Amino acid sequence: MNVHEVIGEVLQKIRPTEEERAFVEGLMVELRGLAEETIESSGLDVKPYFVGSLAKDTYLAGDHDVDLFLAFPLETLLEELREKGLELGRAIAEKLNSYQLAYAEHPYVRANYKGVSIDLVPCYDVRDWRDVRTAVDRSILHTRWVNEHLNGRNNEVRLLKRFLKGINAYGSEIYIRGFSGYLAEILVIKYGSFLGVLKNADFMLRQKIIDPGGWLKGEPELAMKTIRREIGEKRPLIVLDPVDPRRNVAANLSWERYGVFYFRSMEFLESPSTGFFFPEPPEVGSYLAELRRKGSHLITLLFDKPDMIDDLLLPQLEKSARGVEKALERENFRPLGWDVGYVDGKAFVMLEVDRIERERATVKRGPEFFTRNGLNFYRKNERVWLEGKRLYAEKRIKENIVDVLVDLFERSQVSLGKGIAGLVKGADVLVDYVPKELEQRAYLFLSREKLNLKKEQ
Fold this sequence. Notes:
This protein is α+β, with helices and mostly antiparallel strands. It has helices at 3-14, 18-42, 52-56, 78-93, 138-149, 154-166, 181-191, 194-199, 201-207, 215-218, 220-232, 255-270, 287-294, 310-330, 372-380, 401-410, 421-425, 439-447; strands at residues 47-51, 66-72, 98-103, 107-113, 116-124, 209-210, 238-241, 244-248, 297-304, 335-343, 346-353, 357-368, 383-387, 390-400, 428-431.
């Protein structure tokens, strides 16, 4: 198939049907009415805003998560916004099926209604970037800007989002560090189409700075301050937020995820295929076979997952993995890579290492050389010398990596994530074995299939 045939086939799968659109629009009308009714009965001066992909009509078929923001006047104190916003969110959610509290910069309510996840988030009713006080406030401005500039290219955004999902580069969450939905929308607006974005994968990396809001002319001092800061952080891309010159929309985008996008874009343009959008799940082999093939070893630290959100837990797991890696290097082991995560209530740190035992030389003090024991000592040891009349020998002993790790932990010689240090130190240390629920993760890690750039489409 040529590229336009591929795009046509993909669009049939990702573009919402008329029935789906009617459901989404009806749901939003119902939720808005419910929110306005609850706000009025509470006596609060709050405006409800839909934000996110549903409000911009850039959502993919089957993906109907709703973001309903409850905007308080700017003169509201932050503590009052948090307290009253949570009360209001609960009052709305109690009229739906079920809800729970969730946490970001401040608590919000996550409800479920008609099979759809609905986030009820308190924020400030901002007019421009100068009013922004909390991280979520910009979402209203983002939605407004995209709707003003997208000009009917909604399906182009859908294509880019689905492509990024297919190549595992979508999502700015800390455990993905890929392209956010908002970044995808900005790039389509900037380069005109899905194909336009892919064709500029190399150019935008070399250009480095994208300024869709014209801040380098409108607010040059603030824009340059942001650029200098982000260059210092060695980001692959600096996209000045068109609604706020202080922010890089691509701040969470990692070099690895951009690299995947870079190569996949080139490959798709050369040989278009629906496999880029809807890849086959990777074949999972045996992690034990991988260890035999490579002659390496797997060390896994396994412990109960603490009650932390991903944005807090995963950086601490990564810091711990890097700390263990560096500590083992100092002890003359050679780590070949690491992976972290959690499965079924268990958190883990995996490290591939070159060996699990090391030889060390120690000095053994022997008897005086002219005694019977002295003769035996002389015969039993290979490297023997005298210091005065006493014999000494060099003894080589084997140390297991588990004993080394335990000793390092006991002496606090490993840099660990502050909030999980105790858990890591008390973790079960598994060698060349993982429980069944971790077998797939172990294989994907050891085979590097999780990171493999060269995949059949």
